[in-house]
Design goal:
The structure holds 2 protein chains of 2 kinds. By secondary structure, chain A is of the alpha/beta class. Helix content of chain A is 30%, strand content 24%. In chain A, the strands form 2 sheets. Chain A has an 8-stranded mixed beta sheet with strand order 6-7-8-3-9-10-12-11, with helices on both faces. Chain A is globular and about 65 Å long. The two termini of chain A are 17 Å apart. Chain B has a single domain, classed as Orthogonal Bundle (MetI-like fold). Chain B has 13 helices and no strands. The radius of gyration of chain B is 24 Å and the shape is flat. The chains are: A alpha/beta, B mainly alpha. Chains A and B meet through helix 2 and helix 3 of A and helix 9 and helix 10 of B. The complex binds adenosine-5'-triphosphate and magnesium ion. Adenosine-5'-triphosphate (ATP) binds next to strand 1, strand 2 and helix 1 of chain A.
Chain lengths: 325, 307
């Protein structure tokens, strides 16, 4: 790739060790994040988008664990950092916004203080100075009356405002990468557009790269430079956004695109492809999508396809494209 | 918030009146004439009648009640039959010992309970967790007087590490305080642990980790306050169970406090003294509950401006 890569995820594997067996929630995912770009990660519910993000942040909890692969942030391998070293990276060089704006803030502290804490943890500034910066970032993320809002508790803010606070918290230390896990899924459509525009603007101004997790292809088309399509813990297709929409290759991606909601109706979850997502504990022997694929051949049921290069920046995990480029 | 407090105090008044009325009526329907008990069976009936009149016992119960309340409001709870002393004075003499015992027990309960609860939550399902929760279960399942008797037998009679009874030295206070505090320590530890374990599942804990806090910072800074809110209320409420426990503990260890006073009053059918101790303890418990409520108000911002 031409640009410099700030975050390089290579062959990441995270498994959940449950009583019923090992669930490969993230199964060999590689994602490259170039500086200052927005990377979209899409896929149906349960395909492993959040767990990929959590693995990168080192936030997986028991029974989940990263079992393989490397994560390189700005040339530094952060896969095996100690708790102490990791805490210096988290919230500072890489930050995350979560799927649940209503519950992601601590109910017993004013929101301003919670953001200020992120600054005080990573930078040597006085409390007063840190507060100044919080007010500044609140203004930047479009929170009205930031000085007053600083002292508000989460329950006094709407979902949209809370998510802005979260974005402020994630951006306040000017991280190299910000992971936004469905930041707008819980919000209504007009707020969604505002928040997406805001993230794009901040990303351009501060040079922060964003991994935007979503299940909404419309959102992808609007803001992402590059897209990864995930299914059952694997990347099925990856391409630049225009390329993906112009030359959609994987049957699964086509299914997802057919289900783009109109702008005024908001899809909370995608369930428009025939069939159900397979149980991670009982994946098909061949291609994980074969049970739902209308184009599946005999081979698809017994052999696992690799990611095949089909264009300069375009890869597809489907036998149809084997040996193409 | 202050209107809430006002309301709470207003509700407490009928409770208090009810308790006074109940104890008053109960003591008067039990068989046996108090004056006879006081002076013995073989006293001239005329003398008994005279004394009854002096003590106002010949009046109708309602009149006696209002007289009692009227005097009580001025801090006069009557005169003890047995000790022939002002009840208020007797109670105020014994009170500091009960306070000392309860406070010591509370410190034992709170400090040990909270620390054990946190450690158990952090080391969930490991050895320390099992050990602490075992002790906690023992604490909550053993009646206070059992704990007191066992501790007294083992550490005072057998091992002779502590005096068997009395309350005049720090050493003498240790066993009663542990006996009285263990039960509360157990429930506080169990509640702290389960709340903390539950709170740690919350989304905002993940946020705290994501912003770069280390695990101890997450627990101390973000989990504890949320987990402790209900515990704080319980801790203050424990004061009332501690007062009732104090009655038994004081008897076992011979601590000259209100509890032992009440037991003595029952044994000697000393009506004014018994009434006095009951009313006094009721006021304490009501005040304790009010304090718990207030504290919760101050700590939880959602309630703070909600009401
Ligand atoms: N605690 C757990 N125990 C076992 N398996 C788990 C656990 N948490 C997640 N998983 C597995 O990880 C898979 C991926 O979950 P993940 O949350 O990453 O999905 P997602 O793509 O983010 O979906 P959504 O769009 O609903 O957020 C799930 O299918 C689930 O089977
Ligand atoms: Mg998710």
């Amino acid at each position: 790739m031409r640009e410099s890569i700030v975050l390089d995820i290579k062959d990441l594997k995270s498994h959940f060790f449950t009583a019923k067996g090992v669930a490969p929630a993230v199964d060999g995912v590689s994602i490259q994040v170039p500086a200052g770009k927005i990377i979209g990660v899409v896929g149906e519910s349960g395909c492993g988008k959040s767990m990929t993000a959590m693995s990168v942040m080192g936030l997986l909890r028991y029974p989940g664990r990263v079992v393989g692969g490397t994560i390189t942030l700005d040339g530094r391998d952060i896969t095996h950092l100690s708790a102490k070293e990791l805490s210096k990276v988290r919230g500072n060089e890489i930050s995350m916004i979560f799927q649940e704006p209503m519950t992601s803030l601590n109910p017993v502290y004013p929101v301003g203080k919670q953001v200020r804490e992120a600054i005080l943890l990573h930078q040597k500034v006085s409390k007063a100075e840190a507060k100044e910066r919080v007010v500044e970032i609140f203004r930047a993320v479009g929170i009205p009356e930031p000085e007053k809002r600083y002292y508000n508790y989460p329950h006094q803010l709407s979902g949209g405002l809370r998510q802005r606070v979260m974005i402020g918290m994630a951006m306040v230390c000017r991280p190299k990468v910000m992971i936004a896990d469905e930041p707008t899924t819980a919000l209504d459509v007009t707020i969604e557009a505002q928040i997406l525009r805001l993230m794009k603007k901040l990303c351009e101004e501060q040079g922060t790269s964003i991994i935007l997790i979503t299940h909404n292809m419309g959102v992808v088309a609007e803001v992402c430079d590059y897209v990864y399509v995930m299914y059952a813990g694997k990347v099925m297709e990856q391409a630049e956004t225009f390329e993906l929409f112009d030359h959609t290759s994987h049957p699964y991606t086509r299914g997802l695109l057919n289900s783009i909601p109109r702008l005024d109706e908001k899809a909370r979850r995608l369930h428009t492809i025939e069939g159900v997502v397979p149980n991670l504990l009982h994946l098909p022997e061949g291609c994980s999508f074969c049970t739902r694929c209308s184009e599946a051949k005999k081979r698809c049921f017994v052999e696992r396809p690799d990611l095949y290069q089909v264009g300069e920046e375009h890869k597809v995990r489907c036998f149809q494209y084997e040996g193409e480029a | 918030m202050w209107s809430r407090v006002g309301k709470r105090i207003a509700i407490s008044i009928p409770v208090l009146v009810g308790v006074v009325l109940a104890i008053f009526v109960m003591l008067r329907i039990v068989p046996g004439d108090p004056v006879t008990t006081m002076l013995g069976e073989h006293v001239n009936p005329a003398v008994i009648e005279k004394i009854s009149r002096e003590m106002g016992l010949d009046q109708p119960v309602t009149v006696q009640f209002f007289q009692y309340v009227f005097h009580a409001l001025q801090g006069d709870f009557g005169t003890s039959y047995r000790l022939n002393r002002n009840v208020t004075g007797i109670i105020l003499d014994a009170f500091p010992n009960t306070v000392k015992l309860s406070l010591l027990a509370a410190v034992v309960a709170w400090v040990i309970g909270i620390v054990a609860g946190i450690v158990a939550a952090v080391r969930q399902n490991r050895l320390l967790d099992r050990l602490f929760m075992g002790c906690a279960l023992m604490g909550v399942s053993m009646p206070v007087f059992m704990t007191a008797l066992v501790l007294q037998y083992v550490f005072a009679f057998k091992l002779k590490w502590f005096p068997v009874s009395g309350f005049d030295s720090v050493k003498a206070m240790i066993l009663p305080a542990i006996a009285l505090g263990w039960n509360s320590a157990g429930s506080i530890a169990r509640m702290t642990r389960s709340n903390l374990v539950e709170v740690m599942q919350n989304d905002y804990i993940r946020t705290a980790r994501a912003k770069g806090l280390r695990e101890h910072g997450v627990i101390v800074g973000h989990a504890l306050k949320n987990a402790m809110l209900p515990v704080v209320t319980m801790m203050v409420l424990q004061i009332s169970s501690m007062l009732s426990g104090a009655v038994l503990t004081e008897s076992v260890f011979g601590v000259p406090g209100i509890g032992r006073l009440a037991v003595n009053a029952i044994e000697t059918r000393d009506m004014p003294l018994l009434q006095g101790t009951v009313v006094f303890t009721t006021i304490l418990i009501i005040a304790g509950n009010l304090a718990a409520d207030l504290l919760y108000n101050v700590l939880d911002p959602r309630i703070r401006e909600g009401a």
